[in-house]
Amino acid sequence: MITVHSPDERTPAHYVATAIGAVFILIGLFGLWKPAFMGMHLTGAHNLIHLTSGVVSLYFGLAGSAAAARGFCFAFGAVYALLGVAGMAFGVPGTSTMAGMPPDPRLLRVLPGRLELGTMDHAIHIVIGGAYLVAGFLSHPTGVSHQRPHEARITS
Prior knowledge:
The chain is mostly helical.
């Protein structure tokens, strides 16, 4: 049995986009103060990307239709997951140009001196990409739920 919900019902894609968007904004702001937070390489360019991603993610999470939120989760999920996998596969041992960063076994210099991603960044990107993709798969673009409704007994 399939249950049709109202078109404005929030889907898993909405919830995940909203939550990750808020986290992106917090990390982007926090990274300005502490660039090596949790072993991440939070340069100015990386923080700007996080802030922009956060705003876009919040938009689709809070104001997007079910189809738009789902499409966004698929697109961003694929980009972030592929970025993380590429970093793990093609990152090389090296030391970041960021002051205070230890050597990293999988350093990926996207824009040397401006955007350098390390092992922790890659792992986080894979997790974020996976969360977006799962939310996209769990959401239906028309607001149709994949869950069975609770069946109540009708008594006379």
